[in-house]
Amino acid sequence: MELINFLIDHYYLSAPLLIVIVLLFISNAKKGGKKISTQALIGLSNQDKSLIVDIRDSESFDAGHITSSKNIPFADLSRRSNEINKNDKLIILVCETGSVSPNAGEALAKEGFENICILKGGINQWKIDNLPLV
User: Fold this and answer.
1) Which of 27, 65, 108, 121 is 20 to 30 A from residue 34's alpha carbon, by CA?
2) Beta pairing class for 50-54 and 70-71
3) pLDDT at 62
């Protein structure tokens, strides 16, 4: 209750803080590319309109990955980005939880890549949705 009273009494401080927090959430939501669901990924994959790039380490990839995905670990992404065709298909980035992919998307965008999407929730969401891994 004291916090609310403080915020009301000091609206000239709390209003800018609220604006900054909202802008931070908005910028993080758009970071790295458009977020897509597992169902959208399945549709794009079935239409052969996407290249799935799994940015997890090789051990995690070998333990289970989405069919037809290509493994380029995040640590090697800038060095191996030439393995991704810039104009070919939609690039869908997949990590463990969906938290590293936005950083990878930003890195690829700086190198001139467009049409980047990120799997919301990453492989964990894929498993939660009970979808198959190879």
Assistant:
1) 65
2) parallel
3) 96
- Residue listed under structure tokens 């990955």: 65
In angstroms, the CA 23 to CA 26 distance is 5
Q: For residue 47, what are the CA distances in angstroms to 34, 43, 70, 119?
A: 19, 6, 17, 17
Q: Give burial (CB, 10 Å; 0-12/13-18/19+) of 127.
A: middle
* Nearest Cα to Cα of residue 86 among 112, 54, 57: 112
Question: Residue 1: its pLDDT value, please?
Answer: 80
- Would the pTM count as exceeding 0.70? yes
